[in-house]
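R.M. (postdoc): so does anyone remember the format we settled on? I'll just put the structure tokens first.
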């Protein structure tokens, strides 16, 4: 990932808000399914399986 193409803080806040609202809209019983679908859509948009794997590993840190 190119650091020059990273979202600014304001963009990350917007993404966080959008994600939180979507998880609420999906409901507790469908939140996991929604997150898997979202991850697959974003992996497809990335078009880079290795980058997606690195992001998964980064997200697993410090849970």
């Amino acid at each position: 990932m190119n650091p020059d193409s990273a979202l600014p803080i304001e963009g990350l806040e917007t993404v966080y808000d959008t994600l939180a609202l979507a998880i609420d809209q999906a409901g507790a019983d469908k939140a996991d399914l929604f997150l898997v679908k979202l991850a697959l859509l974003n992996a497809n948009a990335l078009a880079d399986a290795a980058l997606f794997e690195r992001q998964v590993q980064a997200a697993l840190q410090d849970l």
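R.M.: ...and that's the designed sequence above, right after the tokens. Also worth knowing: The radius of gyration is 13 Å. Residues 28-63 form one domain.
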